[in-house]
Automatic annotation (TrEMBL), chain A:
The lineage of its organism: Bacteria, Pseudomonadati, Pseudomonadota, Alphaproteobacteria, Hyphomicrobiales. This is Acyl carrier protein.
From TrEMBL, chain B:
GO terms for molecular function: ligase activity. It comes from Methylorubrum suomiense. The gene is menE. This is Long-chain-fatty-acid--CoA ligase. It is found in: Membrane. InterPro entries: AMP-bd_C, AMP-bd_C_sf, AMP-dep_synth/lig_dom, ANL_N_sf, ATP-dep_AMP-bd_enzyme. Its EC number is 6.2.1.3. Residues 45-311 form the AMP-dependent synthetase/ligase domain. Keywords: Ligase. It comes from the Bacteria.
């Protein structure tokens, strides 16, 4: 599974478990304008760390802060590239 | 000191406002609106439970009742009915000031009630000059489920606020917190004692909507937990805010969140405060670095900070006075120091926070008692024993992680599925932030010589 589809799938899974209604998950989706709340976000980040070994949030610059799902994918992409290097 | 009396005398209320997500009120109108002496009668000198839905109603009632009632117990929003009942009992409430959202019709039968709209018209004139000190009762954020009630004086609550200072012109306060929690109440008091305008949040509002509203209202001074801020930092509405003062409290502020806020608001004064419902405001750190300078240990104006057995102790008039309830445990030691339960470690000339001695996990400001989660995890048929700990999390500071020793003979051929099953087992039995975010299987768990799980972080 690609990183993008992993992230999309995990967002959907966390939202379903937390009983949040989500619009279709696309790269343009602004997460904080949905029901995806801080607990959902925290769970997503923990799971992504378990799945990829990367926690790009723990050391990030202001410019890296993800607003959309696409930003989040890009953030994990960069973290994965860093881990592989 | 009585809030409304002080506001009355301070003057300069022109142009000041209080707003929430659906109304905007002039502070002068709230303070000087029509009064009704007959409303004061059933409330004067009584122990009052304030149980309302929104923060605007709470704010107006707090201004009307301070100095009139003997005790004002604040019910934070979103509490389970049994916890509201517990606060009513522990505060020995004689009457409730409420609305339909804060106290359903069938709740607390037998407790007289007055609608908050009516109560907010309680006459003030009768109390001017002869007013009594109202005791304020605040709920802790709840560890074992039931919140504890801490009694404060208004002087103590305002002890960390420089009430003599003239407010910077144009100051508009706001906070992500609810003003019925200690942190939010600090902001309410800062605004009312200045006096300054205040923008109230709403728990049903998205982060984006709140930021847009705060930006539109010209908020200059704003407080949130590190978790509130981490979330706000990920909103493209953050740029709507241009605060002059950014404050963090309620959780450990790590260097990452401080740096991100500094980058987002390069010109703002930034402070992280150490405060708790029991310990009051301990100190504020403004150098932008995590932890606090060792020089804060000792005695300063009005407050003493000590480190004993790696934990912070606070003694000052700003700490809570005592716990309320039938059989309250002592809030402070005989020497007057309050044990905050927060563990610290000295590294060079700074102290850093390590977490709670009790192992209590702070999930974005919501406290989780590990034992409560372990008891649920241990009910799962495959679990022999478990230990629940904080797992550091960049969004909420921490999430819950369970280390699990499986029962002998458990089929763990598919560990991922078994972990999911254990988490799924917890979900209907625990509120969301208490459900383990992750499960780790371990061969055994360390016990103390007394046979208790070792809880302290390594």
């Amino acid at each position: 599974m690609s990183l993008r589809s992993t992230i999309h799938a995990e967002i959907a899974a966390v939202a379903a478990e937390q009983e949040k209604r989500m619009p279709p998950i696309t790269d343009d989706l602004v997460m904080l304008e949905t029901e995806f709340d801080s607990l959902c976000f925290a769970l997503l980040v923990a799971r992504m760390e378990d799945l990829t070994g990367a926690d790009p949030f723990s050391e990030m610059e202001a410019d890296d802060l993800p607003v959309t799902v696409g930003d989040l994918v890009a953030l994990y992409d960069r973290a994965a590239a860093k881990l592989a290097a | 000191m009585i809030l409304r009396e002080r506001l009355f005398r301070s003057g300069g209320l022109e142009g000041l406002f209080l707003s929430d997500h659906h109304e905007h009120r002039h502070l002068a109108g709230i303070i000087g609106g029509p009064r009704d002496t007959s409303v004061s009668e059933p409330l004067a000198g009584k122990r009052v439970l304030l149980a309302v839905g929104g923060q605007m109603a709470a704010a107006r009632a707090m201004l009307a009742l301070d100095g009139l009632v003997a005790r004002l117990a604040l019910v934070p929003p979103g509490l389970a009915p049994e916890h509201v009942a517990r606060i009513a009992t522990d505060s020995d409430a004689e009457i409730a000031v409420c609305d339909a959202e804060g106290l359903p019709d069938d709740a607390l039968p037998g407790l007289p009630r007055i609608d908050v709209e009516t109560a907010s018209r309680a006459s003030f004139e009768a109390t001017v000059g002869t007013g009594r000190e109202t005791e304020w009762a605040l709920a802790t954020s709840g560890t074992t489920g039931a919140p504890k009630l801490v009694a404060h004086t208004l002087e103590g609550l305002a002890g960390g606020i420089n009430t003599a200072a003239t407010p910077e012109p144009g100051t508009v306060w706001s906070t992500f917190y609810d003003i019925r929690r200690y942190g939010g109440l600090q902001v309410f008091l800062r605004a009312m004692l200045a006096p300054a305008s205040l923008v109230l949040s709403d728990r049903h509002e998205t982060v984006r909507d709140f930021l847009v509203r705060a930006g539109d209202a010209g908020v200059t001074h704003i407080l949130g937990t590190p978790s509130h801020w981490r979330l706000a930092l990920m909103s493209n509405a953050l740029s709507r805010l241009s605060p002059r003062y950014v404050r963090l409290s309620g959780e450990i502020a790590d260097q990452t969140v401080l740096d991100l806020l500094r980058a987002a608001f390069p010109d703002a004064r930034m402070a992280h405060a150490y405060a708790s419902t029991e310990g009051g405001v301990g100190f504020t750190v403004e150098d932008g670095c995590e932890g606090f300078p060792a020089s804060l240990i000792g005695t300063r104006a009005g407050i003493e900070i000590a480190v004993r057995d790696d934990a912070l102790y606070v003694r000052s008039s700003r700490t809570g006075r005592r716990y309320l309830g039938a059989a309250p445990e002592p809030l402070m030691a005989e020497d007057g120091f309050v044990d905050t339960g927060d563990l610290v470690e000295r590294r060079g000339d700074r102290f850093h926070f390590l977490g709670r001695r009790s192992g209590v996990i702070n999930v974005g400001g919501a406290k989780v008692q590990p034992e409560e989660v372990e008891a649920v995890v241990n009910l799962h048929a495959s679990v022999s024993m478990s230990r629940v700990r904080a797992r550091p999390n960049p969004i909420l500071g921490a999430v819950v992680e369970a280390e699990v020793v499986l029962r002998a003979g458990t089929d763990a051929a598919d560990p991922a599925a078994l972990k999911k099953a254990i988490i799924a087992h917890c979900r209907p039995r625990l509120s969301g932030h208490k459900v383990p975010a992750s499960v780790r299987f371990v061969d055994d768990l360390p016990l103390t010589s007394g046979g208790k799980l070792v809880r302290r972080m390594p």
